[in-house]
Design goal:
The protein has 342 residues and is an alpha/beta fold. Helix content is 42%, strand content 16%. The strands form four sheets. A seven-stranded mixed beta sheet has the order 6-5-4-7-10-15-16, with helices on both faces. A four-stranded mixed beta sheet has the order 11-8-9-14, with helices on one face. Strand 12 and strand 13 form a beta hairpin. Helix 1 packs antiparallel against helix 2, helix 2 packs antiparallel against helix 3 and helix 5 crosses helix 7. Bound molecules: 5-S-methyl-1-O-phosphono-5-thio-D-ribulose.
Amino acid sequence: MQVKPIEWRDTMIRVLDQTRLPSEVIFLDVADYVEMAAAIREMRIRGAPAIGVAAAYGLALGAQAIEARTKEEFLVKLGTVSRELASTRPTAVNLFWALERMNRAAGEGTAISEIKAALVEEAKRIERENEEADRQIGRLGAELIEYGFTILTHCNAGALATAGYGTALGVIKAAHEQGKQVRVIACETRPLLQGARLTAWELIEEQIPLTLITDSMAGHFMSRGKIDCVIVGADRIARNGDVVNKIGTYSVAVLARENSVPFYVAAPTSTIDLSVKSGAEIPIEERSPEEVTWIRGTRIAPEGVKVANPAFDVTPHRYISAIITEKGVVREPYGEGLKGLF
Ligand code: MRU
């Protein structure tokens, strides 16, 4: 089964509402770019590469509704659409990467009708290339996985998160398809439980053996020798190799180092941001306190409690054994290796 979290339908975009998984499989019909921006902000569609695809289709949809007499007027209006989509989530660089690519495509056309058609084609191309990158990441990453490995993953970096085959889960799926008899330990990933809700759902659909644990159990299993490697995705990779990913990834990386467990990051080159020197420069999204004080409609902390809710953290490159991209596997020194991919 290949999950399709987003689908272009000419007059609207069909989005699988990931906030309702795993209890309900519900699709939303997104009618305009404002609705698409809301869907990204509310994490109905989430995961760095999938956010990029969603923004690209959102811009294409917004473009179809623009009425303008000149190309200049069209581009001004397209700028409004683009800014709205760019304001949804600050950390995953794929969002800005996809919008930049779309705006460049818009700038190249001449007639407005031609630009509108070109934007749809560009969004489709982004989705297609994304999927191809995932497959290649899977192939390259699977070479690092030995027969019978137990792999720990954090958050969800599967087809739901990429609108393709998955990055971290793509590597696991490729190893599974090669008959390597892998097993997965998935961290639940508080506060929004992407591991418990989404990774568990995807792996059960794929029939890949899985054990779900709470985030605080990772060290226990590593110290008992139960984990052969860790693979996670990324939301943004700085040019020195620092990786920003879902909150809790840094703790897992430090535990992996302490226990001599290889820690791999799987991400497409569209997640690499050579304009930032290190992880410290990457904006970390702060989300609403209710994500921490409530779980699925139930308040679990007293009213008035002070809450912090950073959605991501920085894993310094020294904890990372390798970064698996579609263009190759990079190891220290990351500065040279990452630059060499472009
Ligand atoms: O807040 P989310 O659910 O969008 O965060 C997702 C992650 O952190 C993923 O691990 C990352 O985007 C990689 S997805 C291939």
